[in-house]
Design a protein that fits this description.
The complex is a heterodimer of chains A (357) and B (623). Chain A is α+β, with helices and mostly antiparallel strands. Chain A has helices at residues 2-22, 37-70, 89-117, 121-124, 206-211, 240-252, 261-273, 313-321, 323-326, 341-352, and strands at 134-141, 144-149, 154-157, 159-163, 167-174, 179-183, 187-192, 198-203, 216-220, 233-238, 304-305, 309-310. Chain A has a domain at 261-352: Immunoglobulin-like (Sandwich), CATH 2.60.40. Chain B has a single domain (22-229, 236-546, 603-622), classed as Up-down Bundle (Cytochrome C Oxidase, Chain A), CATH 1.20.210.10. The chains are: A alpha+beta (357), B mainly alpha (623). Chains A and B meet through helix 1, helix 2, helix 3, strand 7 and strand 9 of A and helix 3, helix 5, helix 8, helix 9 and helix 10 of B. Chain B: Residues 9-523 form the Cytochrome oxidase subunit I profile domain.
């Protein structure tokens, strides 16, 4: 067992090293760097439960190490018959009662937090101040996200824009299969079901946003098909006044005005092949069943192409040429026929010019 | 007669195994089939880890990755872990309670062949378009959307067939343990593994029907125009999640309770002490099983059930930690004051404690609903359940393999190779899964086929992949060990480890076909140990030596299961091809026809005469 112990130490050393290397993750993505009230509450609950559990592990480990070293069969003890002990009521009561107490310590804050996080009264209040409480309708689709601001009458996709330092409320639903809406740094996830609407709230902290570089990563957390891994979105929290300005710009963004001749060509192609699914105005009035593809009104301002590729013209062309190679199983493949390189160039130029900011 | 060992040709041996109803041979069948599926599931795991070794890898992309991931989970749970546990139950339970066989030997064989053909059917999907790709949980909206191939149909039909087999096995063990205990073996004198099997069987009996209902609904929706999970037609997809987890959570205990039982035997044997707090162990087992049915919705905290349901299920889940903790301390105190011999099985048992405690405490962390919103469907959960299932169940399977191998096959597995396997597996296991807690906490969702660079996940994933290879090498060494042992392992006496406590160690290794020449009299817990302590070499018989009544072998269980296998193919393709429906009906006819034959043919079995028994006993004693 001496050898065994050495191996143990080696292993824990290895674990520690790996831990150090990983650290606490990236500020824009890690639950260990909470960036808002919800994530904070959850983080405290994690810390509390972890410390209770470490206590348990330490107690078990001490008894374990002692027993395994002290009571091993040594040379000359081959015929030793230890005393056959039936049990001990005293000990058994101790290790029943102490865990119960520990669990109570964990259960109370768990229940309180669970209720607090589920409090969405404000968003369902009919007399609420529509400008004061931001509500976002999140609709998850096979590999893209739609964000509708019902109070402002605007729709955007892939990049969620929210005000900082206040509660933002969400209505969550999926239009095809079940997905799950998760912004790890900002707070725990909630599923987007196909059957019913879920509601919850998050707070995006301004300081944490600055630390994260202005953008948080959002993920789909429920297996939804071949491109589940690629169903990312980005969150851009803005101070309230900037958020209001953004909303105003979105509301005023009418039909895109294209001047560049190549982009104009692109617009013609777009209007022939793409407009059936993609809208280019944030004021899309169609019902959600008709909105079968991401709204592209502010495509030029986006963080990523197709949610995952770096935002540049080259990647956009790659995506337009063969979406399947970027996101297997996506719904755009094969819906717009074959485009020539020239057409793709024009289309890319046009799409990149779609900006509201 | 089939089992009286003589030199036989390969064909005869094969026929023997195809028709056997002997619990010891059925145990071999479960061990072999479960072992093969375990290797298959392990290979799939390795593929998963290779794909995730670096960001943007293209080894297994998109849909194919999802197929491998689904089959890894489904295979490991339904086709590897459970059958391997069934192998040990079959090999050991009748011996531990002093019985000649299980209560329904024919049903026992039928159960095995159902599991086997169900598993075979499921794996046929690889060659027929594609495997199921909606995860082992097969959530309804995604399953119904998966229309490119018949993968999900192979899942629903394959699991229904193998599920029938599992329920049969469970009923069989319940009846066996209730009715066939040797004289003197009261319930509170049963070995812990027998208790665990008893409680597990009850769990299966209540947990599998909800799964079957869910699978039938899913089958109806996909193959026969049903709308159970179609919201547009008044169906509901959340119902699938409830049905699945009402089964799925007890399933965890179906796996872990027998594992606890195996470890309880090993701790007592190699500490040379009776199990500490036996009655509290029994009580804890029953309590865990009971609570296991009350907590399923903790898998669904993020579904949107509301704070009341979430809070109730959170607290209910936490309570399971109490009886589990009781067990951990009882094992520690079984070793306390004992004389611990570090054999290979004991290595696994000892390593199980810290490993399983790790999995247990993350379980409690997950039960805190509000915090679970962060953990749910992230790699933290992947780490948690692998700590429980590998650190608990797989360790138990490996421990049980080394512990009972001499009893099952009469030869001892090589201890040195066994310990090498252990260390490689142990290190590889922690290397693979420990780091995954942190991958999850730093935002990595589970079931992703790839990840982009610069999200802080590169190192963790690479370490994890390296660990997986350690486990793979360990498994290869175990296989080499098995081959070497089979060819030239040392033969062992009945009490192979020298410290045996329960009845199985009181008879020859491997046991004769009738197990006990005379049913033993049980005078307390650890019956064999008690006799040894009084200086006796054998058990006191409870009956005079006489003719022994044995069941006949039968090919019908194979045919009944085969019929369902054929039928499943027919119904899978009945919408695509004209031959589908006739083949489906033909399959059902094969099954029903052979069931009819079984009902009308009188089979009274045969007797092994007293003289023959005496001769066999003499041979066994000399061996």
């Amino acid at each position: 067992m001496k050898k065994g112990l050495r191996n143990w130490r080696l292993f824990s050393l290895f674990g520690m090293m790996a831990l150090l290397l990983t650290g606490c993750g990236k500020p824009f993505l890690s639950t260990l760097q909470p960036a808002g009230e919800v994530a904070d509450m959850q983080y405290s609950l994690m810390l509390l439960s972890t410390s209770i559990m470490v206590l348990v592990i330490v107690v078990v480990a001490i008894i374990f190490v002692y027993v395994v070293i002290r009571f091993r069969r040594r040379k000359g003890e081959e015929n030793k018959i230890p005393k056959q002990v039936e049990g001990s009521h005293k000990l058994e009561i101790i290790w029943t009662v102490i865990p119960i107490i520990l669990l109570l310590i964990l259960a109370v804050p768990t229940v309180l937090t669970t209720f607090k996080l589920a409090d969405v009264k404000a968003m369902n209040d009919k007399d609420r101040d529509k400008k004061g409480t931001v509500v976002v309708n999140v609709r998850a689709n096979l590999y893209w996200w739609e964000f509708e601001y019902p109070d402002y009458g605007i729709i955007t996709s892939q990049d969620l824009v929210v005000p900082t330092n206040e509660k933002v409320y969400f209505n969550l639903i999926a239009s095809d299969v079940k997905h799950s809406f998760w912004i790890p740094a900002v707070g725990g996830k909630m599923d987007t079901n196909t059957d019913n609407k879920n509601q919850f709230w998050l707070v995006f902290d301004q300081k944490a946003t600055d630390k994260a570089g202005g953008v948080f990563y959002g993920k789909c957390a429920e297996l939804c098909g071949p491109s589940h891994a690629l169903m990312d979105f980005k969150v851009r929290p803005l101070p309230r006044d900037q958020f209001d300005a953004w909303v105003k710009k979105m509301q005023n963004a009418k039909k895109p005005v294209v001047t560049d001749p190549v982009a104009k060509q692109g617009e013609a192609i777009f209007n022939k092949s793409c407009i059936g699914c993609h809208a280019v105005t944030p004021l899309d009035k169609r019902p959600e069943q008709a909105r079968t593809a991401p709204n592209l009104a502010n495509f030029g301002d986006r963080e990523r192409i197709a949610g995952i590729l770096e935002h540049n013209e080259e990647n956009l062309k790659k995506w337009l040429r063969d979406p399947e190679s970027v996101k297997p199983g996506n719904k755009m493949t094969g819906t717009y026929g074959k485009l020539t390189e020239e057409q793709i160039d024009a289309l890319a130029k046009y799409l990149m010019s779609l900006k509201v900011e | 007669m089939s089992t009286i060992a003589r030199k036989k040709g390969v064909g005869a041996v094969l026929w023997d195994y195809l028709t056997t109803v002997d619990h010891k041979k059925i145990a071999h069948l479960y061990l072999i089939a479960g072992g093969i599926f375990f290797l298959l599931g392990g290979l799939e795991a390795l593929f998963i880890r290779i794909q995730l070794a670096k960001p943007n890898n293209d080894f297994l992309v998109g849909g194919l990755y999802n197929e491998v991931l689904t089959m890894h989970g489904t295979t490991m749970i339904f086709l590897a872990a459970m059958p391997l546990l069934f192998a040990f139950m079959n090999a050991v339970i009748p011996l531990q309670i002093g019985a000649r066989d299980v209560a329904f030997p024919f049903l026992n064989a039928l159960g095995f062949w159902m599991f086997f053909f169900g598993g075979l059917f499921l794996n046929c999907s690889w060659f027929l378009g594609g495997a199921p790709d909606a995860g082992w949980t097969s959530y309804a909206s995604l399953s119904l959307e998966s229309k490119a191939h018949h993968g999900i149909d192979f899942y629903t039909l394959g699991l229904q067939i193998s599920g029938f087999g599992t329920i049969m096995g469970a009923i069989n063990f319940l009846v066996t343990i209730i009715n066939m205990r040797a004289p003197g073996m009261t319930f509170m004198r049963m070995p812990m593994f027998t208790w665990a099997t008893f409680v597990t069987s009850a769990l299966i009996l209540f947990a599998f029907p909800p799964l079957t209902v869910g699978l039938i609904f899913m089958m109806m929706d996909r193959l026969f125009g049903g709308n159970f999970f179609n919201p547009a037609a008044g169906g509901n997809t959340i119902i699938w999640e409830h049905l699945f987890w009402v089964f799925g959570h007890p399933e965890v205990y179906i796996l872990i309770l027998p594992s606890f039982g195996i470890f309880s035997e090993i701790f007592a044997t190699f500490s040379r002490k009776r199990l500490f707090g036996y009655s509290s162990m029994v009580f804890a087992t029953v309590l865990i099983a009971f609570l296991g049915f009350m907590v399923w919705a903790h898998h669904m905290f993020t579904v949107g059930m509301g704070p009341i349901a979430n809070a109730i299920f959170a607290v209910a889940t936490m309570t399971i930690a109490v009886p589990t903790g009781v067990k951990i301390f009882n094992w520690l105190f079984t070793m306390w004051g004992g004389s611990i011999k570090f054999t290979t099985p004991m290595h696994y048992a000892v390593a199980f404690i810290p490993s399983f405690v790790m999995g247990g405490v993350t379980g409690v962390m997950l039960s805190a609903a509000a915090a679970d919103y962060q953990y749910h469907d992230s790699y933290f959960v992947v780490a948690h359940f692998h700590y429980v299932i590998v650190g608990g169940v797989v360790f138990a399977l490996l421990a049980g393999t080394h512990y009972w191998w001499p009893k099952m096959f009469g030869r001892m597995l090589n201890e040195t190779l066994g310990k090498i396997t252990f260390w490689l597996f142990f290190i590889g296991f922690h290397l693979t899964f420990f780091i995954q807690h942190f991958l999850g906490l730093t935002g990595m969702p589970r079931r992703v086929f790839t990840y982009l660079p610069n999200q802080g996940w590169e190192t963790g994933n690479f370490v994890s992949t390296v660990g997986a290879f350690f486990m793979a090498i360990a498994t290869v060494i175990l296989l080499i060990n098995i081959v070497i042992t089979t060819v030239k392992g040392e033969k062992v006496p009945g009490d192979a480890w020298g410290d045996g406590r329960t009845l199985e160690w009181a008879i020859a290794s491997p046991p004769p076909v009738y197990n006990f020449a005379q049913t033993p009299l049980v005078r307390g817990l650890d019956a064999f140990w008690l006799e040894k302590m009084e200086g006796k070499k054998e058990l006191t018989p409870a009956e005079p030596l006489g003719d022994i009544h044995m069941p006949n072998s039968s090919f019908l269980p194979f045919v009944i299961a085969f019929g369902l296998f054929v039928a499943a193919f027919g119904f899978t393709y009945h919408n695509d091809a004209g031959w589908g429906l006739p083949v489906g009906i033909l399959g059902l006819l094969i099954t029903l026809g052979s069931m009819f034959l079984r009902s009308v043919i009188d089979d009274h079995g045969f007797h092994i005469h007293k003289e023959e028994v005496l001769e066999l006993e003499k041979k066994g004693a000399n061996a």
